[in-house]
Amino acid sequence: MNIKCIFIIFILIFANTIKAQQKVIDSLEQQLINPTNGKTKVENLNWLGYYYARSNPEQGLKKLDESVKLAIANNDSLQLGKAYEYKGLNHKNLGNDSIMLSFFKKAEYIYRNIDSKGALPFLVLNRGMYYSQRSNYHKANEDYKSAMESFTLSNDTLLMGYILGRIGQSNIYLGNYKTSLDAFLKGATLLELSGNEKTMHYGSIMGDLGLLYQKLSKYDTAIEYHNKCVEIYKKHGFNRGLSNQYNDIGNIYTKLGQFQKAMDIYKVSYAMKKQTNNKADIAGSFTNIGNTYSHLGDLDKALTYLDSANILHKELKDFNGLSIVEEHLGTIKLKQGETLEAKKHFDSAVYFATKIEDKRAILFGKLGLAKASYKLGNHKLAYNEIKDALEIKDSLFSDEKMEDLASIKARYEYDKERAILEANFENDKILQEAEIEQQIINRNLSIGAGIFLLGIFSTGFIILRRKKEAELNEEIVTAELQKLRVQMNPHFIFNTLNSINDFVLKNEKSKASNYLARFSVMMRQILDNSEEDEVNLSDEITFLESYIKLEQQRLNNTFTYSINVNNNIDLEELYVPSALLQPIIENSIWHGLSPKKEGILKITFTEERDRLICTIEDNGVGLNPNKENLFSDKSFGTSSVKNRINLLNKRKGTNAKIKVIEKEEGICTILELPISKDV
Predict the structure, then answer these.
(1) In the chain, what's the furthest Cα-to-Cα distance?
(2) What average pLDDT does this structure show over 661-667?
(3) DSSP string spanning 624-639?
(4) Which range among 17-21, 28-32, 200-204 shows the weakest confidence by mean pLDDT?
(5) Where does the record place the Signal transduction histidine kinase internal region domain (predicted)?
(6) Strand partners, 600
(7) Which of 301, 399, 541, 554 has its CA 20 to 30 A from that of 239?
(8) In a domain, 628, yes or no
(9) Can you say how many angstroms the Cα of residue 45 is from the centroid of all Cα atoms in its chain?
(10) 123: in domain
(11) Pairwise CA distance, residues 199 & 229, whole Å
């Protein structure tokens, strides 16, 4: 399919999207003519303000001014907060950042005062997206994580998946590729398990995975992900997303040296972006088109587009965009022989890249400075810039090697520049080579000595340990099998399937579907966690909540539960033995709470002197007449807990403890574990 055909297809998609949006606006305008009551009118005005933000922000602000007056008159705090929030969105699209933030602040104040757990996380999410667009990725991640906590509590898997995608995207630009990939895969898995793999949120993650693999120079893989995203966006008629994906595919052709093909695609993308009049999108198109004209040899056109991009990026305070444009401008000025101007642009590129901690952009800026300094005759400065670039390059590549990620293109570009520069200052080269050679000798001697000593130590030590390791491995395998058997308890599965069958017989389809979905997610968590000896506390709590919610639904919500974690505990950093707590909680529910009508289950995590204290309390019936408490030998699940604790102490030389206290009403189980952190 040629570029003209693609252009026509995309324009048709765009036209249909515009028509659909205008249809919504027309419908809302019509409802304003004959409102049934004041509240309906203020809601309609707010929705109009929201939709106009994308196409006509000035008109959107007029509608929202009217909404503010009506909401105040009706004493409707929620709608007043939404009016302020949507006014912020309109001002954002007009480029009025400070005004936008002030309206967001007003909306946040209202939402917190009325304890609006529904509206507040969306506001925080929108603010995070704003920070991301302005290249303030640390602040963006703070807001994303805050919104994530709210959506996790409400179990909104669609939005949880979306936010994980946004966190992944921010970390791409921060150079945290491992964190980025982890967030993307978590988000995609969450959406797949909840049946949301055809949503635009899933498409967004696919597109961002394409962007990540572009950064790693894995172009075939990148195109596969971009195409998955395009397929989803086409079905939804999401033209802005399509134009961005089209733009990203153009970037791949640029990196492959197919500049004319890239230019054709960039221009199609730009034609679509002009229709939405989004400054950030248009600035990105100007940057790409300008850089491609530079590769094609038309430097005058390249400068025209790049200068236009620079104006927009400055207006938007987009430091990521500015660092890229300044580096391109520096390269062109070098080609034109304007070396001093080139150096100024490269200095600016490094400055903006440093503000957002983009290591790759800093690397390219430093390489540009080295070229410019060398041409200006300042060989020492050129050498220092190359040295800085080497340190940055080493940090990038060591991180990626550790993460088993592909080498990035900067290695080749750095090595090429280094060879050119080092050939021109022989004295520095001799000194540098001598230093490098000495470092290699020292390193090899250290490694050799270490290997020799390790070999002597290992030979004697392994003989003594082999018998104990064999015995311990047998215990580990037994304990792991017990762990999986406890989780796959046939009694639990039988009751679960009976509950689903009961919902089906009663024709309660939504309950059956919801219950089955929760059960499926829990089974997936069980199988995933069964491969791990330890999981982070966040994942363990997620698993426990899945289990408790199933039991709540099966017992007709005859008990409530709470899970409290002290603020000083880092849920992602602290690790615990997987599924150690589930059998204890199961006993609390079935032996303590199931006979009661108003049961309470309370789980608390605290940290005291390098120990994690987990307290599980219930207000159940307590010990039964036969004194078969939580740790009766008749309970296979709970006896395996004791076995695992004993094994943990043997393996790690720790002193994990568990004790059961009978209260006036119910049982309190206290589990003490040594702190295990991801280091």
Answers:
(1) 94
(2) 87
(3) -TT---TT-TT-HHHH
(4) 17-21
(5) 479-558
(6) 560
(7) 301
(8) yes
(9) 34
(10) no
(11) 10
Give the model confidence (pLDDT) of 544-555 as tens digits. Answer: 888 888 888 888
The predicted-structure confidence for 261-320, as pLDDT tens digits, reads as follows: 989 988 888 888 887 677 888 888 899 999 999 889 999 999 999 999 999 988 888 888
Tokens of 359: 């290591």
In a domain, 575, yes or no: yes
Query: Dihedral angle at the C-alpha atoms of 365, 371, 373, 379, nearest 10 degrees?
Result: 130
pLDDT tens figures, 221-257: 999 999 999 999 888 888 878 888 888 999 898 888 8
Taking the alpha carbons of 572, 577, 579, 582 in that order, is the dihedral positive or negative? negative
Q: Which domain holds residue 664?
A: 508-677
| pTM exceeds 0.70 for this model | no
| Residue type at 50 in one-letter notation | Y
Output the six-digit token pair for 175.
């150079």
Find the distance separating the first CA and the last CA of the chain, reported in whole Å: 51
| 534 three-state secondary structure | strand
**Among residues 542, 484, 538, 546, which one has the least CA distance to residue 514?**
546
Question: Looking at residue 143, what is its pLDDT?
Answer: 92
Report residue 130 as tokens: 């704003």
Convert 437-474 to b/e letters by CB count within 10 Å (16 or more is b). eeeeeeeeeeeeeeeeeeeeeeeeeeeeeeeeeeeeee
* CA-based nearest residue to 107, from 70, 80, 127, 128: 80
**Average pLDDT of the segment spanning 66-76:** 90
Residue 529 has pLDDT above 70, yes or no: no
What are phi and psi for residue 362, nearest 5 degrees?
-65, -45
Is residue 432 pLDDT above 70, yes or no? Answer: no
Supply 645's token pair: 């604790």
> Long-range contacts made by residues 107-116, C-beta under 8 angstroms, separation at least 24?
107/81, 107/82, 110/77, 110/78, 110/80, 110/81, 110/84, 111/81, 113/77, 114/77, 114/78, 114/81, 116/78, 116/81
Band (pLDDT 50/70/90 cuts) for residue 210 is very high
Number of structural domains, the chain?
1
Which tokens go with 526?
């069980």
State the pLDDT at residue 105: 92
What CATH number is attached to the domain comprising 540? 3.30.565.10
Q: What is the pLDDT of residue 22?
A: 66
Assess contact for 175 and 359: CB atoms under 8 A.
yes
φ, ψ (nearest 5 deg) of residue 511: -65, -45
- Identify whether the C-beta of residue 117 lies closer than 8 Å to the C-beta of residue 154: yes
Q: Is residue 324 part of a domain?
A: no
Above 60 in pLDDT, residue 15? no
pLDDT of residue 205: 92
- Sequence letter at residue 419: A
Mean predicted confidence (pLDDT) in 318-338? 91
Output 530-536 pairs: Cβ under 8 A, ≥24 positions apart: 530/480, 530/483, 530/484, 530/487, 530/578, 530/579, 532/578, 533/577, 533/578, 534/575, 534/576, 534/577, 534/578, 534/676, 535/575, 535/576, 535/578, 536/571, 536/572, 536/573, 536/574, 536/575, 536/576, 536/678
Which residues, at least 6 apart from 427, have a Cβ–Cβ distance to it below 8 Å?
none
Q: In this structure, which amino acid lies at residue 199? A: T
- CB-CB neighbours of 103 under 10 Å: 21
Quick one: what percent of the chain has pLDDT higher than 90? 18
Q: What is residue 408's DSSP assignment?
A: P
DSSP assignments along 147-187, one per residue: HHHHHHHTT-HHHHHHHHHHHHHHHHHTT-HHHHHHHHHHH
